[in-house]
Amino acid sequence: MPSLLPDKLRTVVGAPHVLTGVECSPYAIEGRAPEAVVFPGTKEEVAAVLQLAAEAALPVTPWGGGTKMAMGSPPSRVGLVLGLGRMNRILEHEPGDLTVTVEAGLTLEALQSALGARGQWLSLDPAAPERATLGGILASNASGPRRHLYGTARDLVIGLTVVMADGSVVRGGGKVVKNVAGYDLPKLYIGSCGTLGVLVETTLKLRPRPDVDRLVVTHFNRLKDAGLAARAVLSSDLIPSALELADGEALRALGHGGGAGLLIGLDGIAEQVDWAIAELTRLLAPLGLGESTVLDGEARDRAWRDLARLGRPGTEHGSAVMKWAVLPAQAADLMDAGAAAAQRNGLGAALTAHAGVGIVTAILSGGLDTNAVVATLTEWRALVGGAGGQAMVEWAPLAVKERVAVWDTPGPTLRVMRRIKERLDPRSILNPGRFVGGI
């Protein structure tokens, strides 16, 4: 890093908001500490910082709450970490229009608390809402069980303000729901992992809070039976807000015994939810339904939190985590096969799935043997690829990532992705090398 750059950064954001040396240690990525960490307070300061970084050809990694920093290929160099935690304001809330405009550093928990006071909410439920920021959620397109009914971040964004690699500020979309003019450029940045621009503001669609919100935990003897139950729910008149498959290990981690389970979220007016719970029992009883438990309030929230915590670094189930994208009808069988592969390699595994969309979270545990972890992840990738799906290592120790590719081998779309990257970030300073195909 050029010797004068820290002083220039301090001039832009103020001396207390620039870290260097050992102070940067908490912001290390894959064991590599950044050369400096800077915390701008406005989008204009973000623009000025990026201009300085571009002039110095210094890589920049946007950082919200840090909940997704383990995702992606290991960086060859961590130059400047751009922390957005100071940019945490609600800029505009229009309750009548069901829209809100916020800065990217606002945590989801803080936003939900403010919206809840007006009887509204943002229908996203990724893990760690107390730390996850809106910018990080959009950059990683993070979501949770409620994506089954409410969709992902892509479905909720109306507009975005992005600071480009050269420091220019670009606004895409608008502030109203009926906004369909021109290309939907904001979608380009959602899920791009900070490789195309730094998200600084966003306008989002809201919903009224449901009168009732319950979680039904159902038990089956076999995962195959739980998978058939999920298909029965999908084919019925029921409209669950969440539909999660869980194998025996995942259920045990949640404190709900073994076997297999289907976790079904139901929300809406009280009469509608009561009918849906009764209909579930009628529908699933012939399919091997065992015990079922209806959770509400804190018990419901705790169950969803525990499910989200599975596989996070530092937890018991956290030797490595792989995400699979498969056909929903394939999920249960592939989960069984994945658990068997882990067992052959002497490891434990807990597997869950968004049953309606076919996104499986496969979590390894007991992985002190790096060779066993590598072998299992390799088998999982082959298993998923053989079924026509895709696999991505969401989290693993660096020693594992050095031997197992984070991303699947990219297809012909990589050429288009690289051209977009070259156009928007010609010097490749934004989170370089961490995305698909080394973008």
* Distance N to C terminus: 22 Å
What structural class results from the helix and strand content? alpha+beta
CATH architecture of the domain at 90-208: 2-Layer Sandwich
Report the CATH topology name of the domain at 90-208: Uridine Diphospho-n-acetylenolpyruvylglucosamine Reductase, domain 3
Low-confidence stretches: none
Average predicted confidence as pLDDT: 93
Please provide the count of β strands: 19
How many helices? The count is 14
Strand content: 15-25%
Give the overall shape. globular
Largest sheet, if any? 8 strands, antiparallel
Give the radius of gyration.
22 Å
Describe this protein's structure.
The protein is built from 14 helices and 19 strands. It is of the alpha+beta class and 439 residues long. Among the domains are: 90-208, Uridine Diphospho-n-acetylenolpyruvylglucosamine Reductase, domain 3 (2-Layer Sandwich), CATH 3.30.465; 212-307, 2-Layer Sandwich (Alpha-Beta Plaits), CATH 3.30.70.2190; 320-401, 2-Layer Sandwich (Alpha-Beta Plaits), CATH 3.30.70. Strands 15-12-14-13-17-18-16-19 form an 8-stranded antiparallel sheet. The chain has a 5-stranded antiparallel sheet with strand order 5-6-10-8-9. α1 (5-13) packs antiparallel against α2, α7 packs antiparallel against α11 (331-344) and α11 runs antiparallel to α12 (370-386). The chain is globular, with a radius of gyration of 22 Å. 46% of the residues are buried. The mean pLDDT is 93.
